Amino acid sequence: MPRILLSLGALCVLLLTAAAQAAPIARWEREGWRTDFSQATVDLGEVLSGGPPRDGIPSIDDPAFVPVSEAALAKREPVIALEIDGDARAYPLSVMTFHEIVNDRFGDRPVLVTYCPLCNAAIVFDARVDGRTGGRPRSARRASCAAPTS
Description:
By secondary structure, the protein is of the alpha/beta class. It folds into two domains: 2-46; 60-146, no CATH class. The protein has two helices and seven strands. The strands form two sheets. A five-stranded mixed β-sheet has the order 6-5-4-1-7. The protein has a two-stranded antiparallel ribbon with strand order 2-3.
């Protein structure tokens, strides 16, 4: 009898381990991830969400700008400053922290302004690849978030 209980206990542990690994995989697949989860070097049951789900941080598209004199910014508000061909803009970190990406245009030039609040890093990209730009992200938003610096 103890041998049967030991075998049943081992079987339960195996089933629980398999269920623990299957639960996050099913959720990730529902979220749209297309990954071969069989190629894991860690127990996927140990992976925990560290933040919002996929597409859970909405980008800002077509931001509205106001003159500095009208901007509701503190005197020493940290911003990402960007100037292209004499057109200067500021993207407040207080807004970028919650959106992380702004899709903007300087004339005919599309730019992608990015900010990572975890490492306090900003990078601006020319949003064209081979002379073309992609479509709008699913989570696109229009917001009034940035003020020009002049």
